[in-house]
Amino acid sequence: LTRRFAGLLGYRRFTTFCFQDMTARELTARRSTNERGDTTWQWSPLVEAAVEGELAVLDGVHRLPVGTLAATVGRLVSDRELDLPDGTRLVCWDHWQALRLHYSAEELREGKVHLVHPSFRIICTAEPPALGRNWLDEELLTLFHFVSAPPPTDAEYAELLSQTSKSPSTEKQIRGLHSLAARLRGLADEEPHLYQPITFSTRRILQVGQYRASQGDLGEAVAMALSAPIRFLPQNAQDVLRGLLAGAEAQGLP
């Protein structure tokens, strides 16, 4: 969806992949050292997109600690201004024009003042809130417009698999895959700390298709797509998942 949005409107995408331990500072800048050992700051993709007037994509914001997203991008979204850890200031168009009455654009940039380009846009992607992981608080509700993308239908599953694996799937196979995905989502809703990493997202469906293109067998492709995250689960959770895979094979995954 973000790729399509960017393509239609002529944007370049600057993507940040969010993770559980990510701090507010890491969303805007990253500390580094130069060849002399001096501390330097590098702008994050979010800040680069803001200055260049491109599309910032924050992927998986549901993984961020509660409050991190609002604390970081709240002012950038509502006021189009932001203060960075190195002293750099991003300012909105009106503020920039007021400063330009007294300083040249070059002087402002030398003073670490940059304009947030009027064309700058942000898209955040996330999984829906669920019991035990309600990341969508009141602050975020006021910052963004929300678009819900429902889980893929059987027909969409079939099309995704066919496009990536270059091989058509039978109705029985798709029904078995859809059933497995629904069971995994149910487990993740009940115990997100255990089963969230193995839910069947659209990205994982694409992985299944890619594995199937090389392996030829849909059941083996599903097992390969889940093999890496399963290794890090407790033994009882691994047993539950292997039971689900066995049941899915019985329903149509050969």
TrEMBL record:
GO terms for cellular component: cytoplasm. Residues 1-144 form the ATPase dynein-related AAA domain. One of its GO terms (molecular function) is ATP binding. It holds the Pfam family AAA_5. It comes from the Eukaryota. This is ATPase dynein-related AAA domain-containing protein. It comes from Alexandrium monilatum.
